[in-house]
Amino acid sequence: MIDKEYIQKLVEEITEGTSIFLTRLDIDNLGKISVYLDSDTNITIDDCVKVSRYIEKNLSKLNDDYQLDVSSHGIGNPLTNVRQYPKHIGHLLQIKTIDNQIIKCKLINYEAEKLTIEIQNKNNKKEKEEKIIDLSQIKECKEILKL
Questions:
Q1: For helices 4-15 and 45-59, angle between their N-to-C axes, nearest 10 degrees
Q2: How many CA atoms lie within 13 A of 111 on its CB side?
Q3: In angstroms, rounded to a whole number, what is the distance separating the alpha carbons of residues 73 and 124?
Q4: pTM to 2 decimals?
Q5: pLDDT tens track for 68-88
Q6: Spatial separation of the C-alpha atoms in residues 93 and 107, rounded to whole Å
Q7: Contact by Cβ (8 Å): 15, 70
Q8: Dihedral angle over CA of 83, 88, 92, 94, nearest 10
Q9: Rounded-to-integer distance, Cα 88 and Cα 141, Å
Q10: In this structure, what are the phi and psi dihedrals at residue 29, rounded to the nearest 5 degrees?
Q11: What homologous superfamily is domain 4-72 in, according to CATH?
Q12: CATH of domain 82-143
């Protein structure tokens, strides 16, 4: 069985000193390894290929059966790493709090584990209110896509 910590260590080794970071790592019982990456700037296919090849090279030594998928974090997936928030400043978010309240807002700032968000007044769309919300109060946060 492939060790999750080992894969995490490999990703950290190959991305050290870059703007790329791990956002999620899943390994199922059949040996399927799913690695999700993001970047402080933009993640490219070449970045994913480089990480994939590095992991494959190191896993080939173990002689385990596995299927490896390395991809970008993906639009619409919850933000899972604090390094993702600065990149989403100015974007619309949907936040689900730990008490299951849903907040649709615009991210104004991220600093010291706190989000500054702008919420529209439900009764007067022209009125906006700024709030600060601590990351510990957030269960899930996703970007709202405008089509």
A1: 130
A2: 5
A3: 35
A4: 0.84
A5: 999 999 888 999 999 999 999
A6: 7
A7: no
A8: -10
A9: 11
A10: -70, -20
A11: K homology (KH) domain (3.30.300.20)
A12: 2.30.30.100
